[in-house]
Specification:
This is MORN repeat variant. The chain is mostly beta strands and about 260 residues long. The protein has two domains: about 120 residues, Uncharacterised protein PF14869 family, DUF4488 (Lipocalin, Beta Barrel); about 110 residues, Lipocalin (Beta Barrel). The chain contains two helices and 17 strands. The strands form two sheets. An eight-stranded antiparallel beta barrel has the order 1-3-4-5-6-7-8-9. The relative contact order is 0.14.
Length: about 260
Amino acid sequence: MKKALFLLLVIPALGFYTDDPANVLNGVYRQTKYRHGTMTGLKVRDDMTALKLFVNGHWVSVLYNHKDPAKTGSVGGGTYHLKNGKYLETTGFYSWNPTVVGQTIKYDYSLKNGVYYQRGMVRGTEKHHDYLSEEYAERIKAEKPLTATNLEGVWLHLYSEYSDHSMHMRDQPGTITLQYMMYPHFVSVTYGSKENEVLEYFGGTYEFDGQRLKQTIDFANGDFYEVGQILNYTITLHDNAFTQEQSRWRELFVSAEPHMMAMKK
């Protein structure tokens, strides 16, 4: 009996973990320090702005030049889960190195006092060899509380209707558009469903009061959106979906569940 009790006390200490739910990481984080590849130590991230959004098992990160936000650096995203004390990240798209698409990388991680940390080996290719990745990021605190949280999540764009009957890139066959919304930031990404090539991305901050959505563009590639542009929409909420509408167009987004992604493809 004593031996059994001893084992029950010791086994957890040997590395058995209770898996945390993915949403414990929910939030927006700004990278403060990093080390990649052959770097000999951590470097302060002051040359570019690097943001990462965790949204209920989905992630998206963007790197852009805050001095010239139109010159965006890269964007990547996918899914993640937490298991046995590790952070496992699967890449669904990545503009800088699309060869990592489909890979799942295991990281050590921690979240303490609003500071997120991850460290692991990224599998590379002949061009991009395996390398160590180590990052620190601070959770961004909103200046004011969000009035309505209905839009927090990851949303799949289904279709658009334009007053001039034009067609935007996101409406082209074979593309997927995801909109990540985690207050106070959002990121929208359009990529090819087969080649996983990133076609367009933009993002910034947003406010939502339950009926009106205001998005302010902080970074953008392409010519459709401009940095500093403010987008105002009227929102109609549906079951696991919403419609956003302004004078020139209307768009329908649904919750980005895997079976809905398959329908889009």
